[in-house]
Here is the input.
Amino acid sequence: MGGYGSGGHNKTHKRLESFRRDSFAFYDYLMADKYLDCKTTVQYPLTRGDIIYHVQSRTALIKVLSIQDGEYRYVDLPLSRVPGIDGKSVRMYFHCPYCGRRVRYLYDYYKHYACRKCAKLNYSCQQKSGMDEIRLKMERIAERLDYQWWRNNYDCIADVYYIPKPHYMRWAKYEKLMQEFKALQKQYERNMENALMKAYKALCR
Here is the structure.
């Protein structure tokens, strides 16, 4: 009871569905800009400010509107670019301004943009046994692939898009495990999207 992945309501954490911020959407936003190379800065809109991306240095800041004094504050936003599992695409991740962990999402939580753990937020659907079961299956595959360090860089096993092949494992077995992993990942993302959509509709009522 109460072990890792066992579910149950965490009363010390708040729900985060309405605070979601997608780093992949930010990357797509940059790639869709045909004139990106001709610009010095790009502003990506947030709920209370902008991400200001410096094109030449490939660095970013978060421009946040302070609720208290109505003025803008600027916070460094480190970025990471990680090759996709297909070896061709690129995924962009944020680094939390507070703990420095590489994460897929940052959340507008009162006065700060922070990762889920720093903001002490939980997905409501993470407490459902079905989601727990999918994550546990993915974690078992990661263990078989001798990839134990994903927790250092990711909030959730479902965010892992590349697992290197162990040197001792045959390619056929590796590819079979990765196919199973990607299928579980797609299933998890579909369930997550459905749960978020239900939560959003409930908030709009």
About this structure: The first strand starts at residue 14 and ends at 15.
